[in-house]
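Appendix B, record 7
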Amino acid sequence: MRLLVLLAAALFLTVAHAQAQVYAPYDGYDEYDGGYGYDDPYSPYPPPPYYEPESGYREPSQERREPSTRIGRGAIVIATREHTLIYTTASGEQFAYPIAVGREGKQWYGSTRVVSKRMHPEWRPTASMRQKNPRLPAVVKAGPANPLGTRAIYLADGLLRIHGTNDPSSIGTNASSGCFRMYREDVEELYDMVQPGTQVIVQR
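Structure tokens (predicted):
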């Protein structure tokens, strides 16, 4: 009898695991179809629960380095080749963070600005993403599986974002489809400091 119970439990776990939805950590999740269609930052949403940091995330004070780029106060500079985001406050204090940037052919350079911010963003796959992968849901709610992490800072009228990630191992690489990924603690710290209107300069 005990053997039958164990076999039934093993079968149940196997089926449950097979049906579990797994969202790849980054490939294609930063793509956009124009405008805010994939994730309207102005839509109402309920406050999500707080999520504890996952293992693999580092403390914000680690891996910090002196920025190699001189920039004006109150601005963000993204040094693509160095995989580094540098924010200079209005008082002149500088914060440098390691980031993931776009893959070859998916990188954008120029000057833009922060247009909005969202805590615990939902992720809405575009129509083209769902066509390529019909298993994707219409909405991925806030939580550990969300490819946008716990914070999203929207740039260029929503076409690009600085955001967290559910794949911290991608930080320091060319991994996204154009957006800029940060460690959870880093994006939360940056989120608290920057405001809409902040200039963002993306350099090679």
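Remarks on this record: Confidence is low (pLDDT under 50) at residues 13-30, 32-68. The first strand starts at residue 75 and ends at 79.
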